[in-house]
Amino acid sequence: MPGLAQRNRDPEFAKKRFAGCHMQPNKAEKQLSELLAANSLPYRYVGNGEVVFGGKNPDFINVDGQKKLIEVFGVYWHDPFDVARRTEHFRQYGFSTLCIWEDELKEPEKVVAKIKSFNRRRISHGENRLC
Question: Rounded to whole angstroms, how far apart are CA atoms 99 and 97?
Fold first, then answer.
């Protein structure tokens, strides 16, 4: 029987696994979700397992046709190597990724400006992240 990492690559298995976890947005994800809504930014929370790429579940996905993701990283749970691994993983599926560190959310206007800038940018081949 294949291991969990290998089974997570199967989209149906991954969706069922995430759904079974009853994942809810954490505090930082809720904050960002509110910022996105208040500023009419075209991203939706999908960190509940709704969207899975190769066994990995992004936090937010662009809903206006651009292949862009936003990941929220907590300093306790994530390190820069984790950021690099996840953004590279999503790049393999054609997505560029903007990472927001939870401490950045203390200055919401800067986060909104960062997201607006990311959203306006045309991403060239090979470029996949803004951290």
Answer: 6
